[in-house]
Amino acid sequence: MKLEVFEPAMCCPTGLCGPSIDPELTRVSTIHYVLQQRGFDVSRYNLASEPNRFVENSVVKAEITNGIDSLPLTLVDGKIVKRSAYLTNEELAELTGLPIAAFAKQDGEKPKVRISLKK
């Protein structure tokens, strides 16, 4: 499964810059990191920094021809699965077959991902 998210122009994908933190972008960044760590093919494209990705993809190009109101736009295996909003944790769990606990807070804590640093 290939999951691609085409986002409107932003200064960064994490939501940590600017005058206030965007919790939705932080959630999406965390989820995408979790999915990548579990071997999923996940990509995010920002209109400001990667405009070519938008025009090279015929599905996305056709979708935004009359405006960018449908962004963020999520594609799974090249087909649109969500417009104008990010996938919810429930939708991602259903698509990936992972338990909702992989994406949701448990007892007030965010999902934990182990990383290893090479010496």
Structural class, from helix and strand content? alpha+beta
Number of strands: 4
Could you state the oligomeric state of the chains shown? single chain
In N-to-C order, the SSE pattern is EHEHHEEH
Your description of this structure?
- There is one protein chain.
- The protein has about 120 residues and is α+β, with helices and mostly antiparallel strands.
- It is about 30% helix and about 20% strand.
- It contains 4 helices and 4 strands, in the order E-H-E-H-H-E-E-H.
- The protein has a 4-stranded mixed sheet with strand order 2-1-3-4.
- The longest helix is centred in the first third of the chain and has 15 residues.
- The model has no long low-confidence stretch (mean pLDDT about 85).
Keywords:
alpha+beta, 4-stranded mixed sheet, 4 helices, 4 strands, globular
Quickly describe the structure.
With 119 residues, the protein is α+β, with helices and mostly antiparallel strands. The protein is built from 4 helices and 4 strands, in the order βαβααββα.
Chain-wise SSE layout:
Blueprint lengths: L1 E6 L15 H15 L3 E6 L4 H6 L1 H7 L8 E4 L2 E5 L5 H8 L23
Parallel strand pairs: 1-2
Antiparallel strand pairs: 1-3, 3-4
